[in-house]
Design brief:
Elements: E1 5-8, H1 15-21, E2 26-30, E3 41-44, E4 59-61, H2 70-74, H3 76-81, E5 89-93, H4 102-110, E6 118-123, H5 130-138, E7 143-146, H6 151-157, E8 160-163, H7 168-174, E9 179-181, H8 186-198, E10 202-203, H9 209-217, H10 220-231, H11 238-249
Parallel strand pairs: 1-2, 2-3, 3-4, 5-6, 5-8, 6-7, 8-9, 9-10
Length: about 250
């Protein structure tokens, strides 16, 4: 179809395939693997990534260009204002697909440790963990949210989070939500490790989740530091910056 831009988000795309998409259109590629592209623009929100990584293709890099839904930026000011308090509510969200039943596995570790912290657990209607989650919700152990459309509100209301290391890292950062992150894919490991070193989150393997949770929930100063360090990285308007760049080149 005639178009000014094609936007491609596919880890398996090849240089030849990308060149084909550029026939009659400009091509913008979303990536975080630092691999070569036959593109007119690359968008990579990875922390610490330099635009020169993708040369000669122009690139918009770093969390300032993270493609976060506008609702998170809308709630940013209020969310940041309430950081630093006790950990009364925790958001447990590993993505609606619940890869490998990770949500159930995490809850098996966390529930004996939660104390008075209330858990808001997010899952999709096809999540492998859903039968177990429904039983826990019926018993009053958790508050279950299925196929959530307004993650921004749930995230803003939480005092601490446990989740995966994909794009949701930047959603939580916009709101300064102190987080324990369990990488679920190989391409998430390096970035979460780097963000841990920077002090923006706590990265943990599933086997270490209990210790990481206890550390974050029991230390108010650590939670405030995680909030401040993460919030400065991403303000939630990266999608607008990318859109402006596309429009300016059209």
């Amino acid at each position: 179809w005639p178009s000014d831009w094609v936007v491609l988000d596919n880890y398996r795309s090849t240089l030849d395939e990308e060149a084909g998409w550029r026939t009659g259109s400009r091509l913008a590629v979303i990536d975080d693997l630092a691999r070569p592209h036959a593109a007119d623009l690359v968008v990579d929100p990875s922390f610490g990534r330099e635009a020169t990584t993708y040369a000669p293709a122009p690139a918009l890099t770093g969390p300032a260009h993270a493609l976060v839904r506008r609702g998170f930026a809308d709630r940013r000011e209020d969310a940041l204002a309430r950081r630093g308090g006790p950990a009364r509510r925790a958001l447990i969200a590993f993505g609606l697909t619940d890869v490998g039943g990770i949500t159930q596995a995490a809850l098996d570790i966390l529930l004996p440790l939660t104390g008075e912290t209330r858990l808001d657990v997010v899952a999709g209607s096809g999540a492998p963990s859903l039968p177990r989650l429904r039983a826990l919700a019926q018993g009053g152990a958790i508050d279950l949210h299925i196929d959530v459309r307004d993650m921004a509100t749930l995230s803003a209301q939480a005092d601490v989070a446990v989740g995966a290391g994909g794009g949701s890292v930047w959603e939580r950062a916009v709101l300064g939500l102190p987080s324990v992150v369990v990488p679920l894919a190989d391409n998430q490991i390096a970035m979460t490790t780097l963000l841990d070193s920077y002090g923006a989150l706590v990265s943990a393997e599933l086997s270490d989740l209990g210790a990481a949770w206890t550390r974050v929930v029991s230390d108010a100063e650590l939670r405030l530091s995680l909030s401040e360090r993460s919030a400065v990285l991403c303000d939630g308007v990266g999608a607008e910056r990318v859109a402006r760049a596309l429009m300016a080149a059209s």
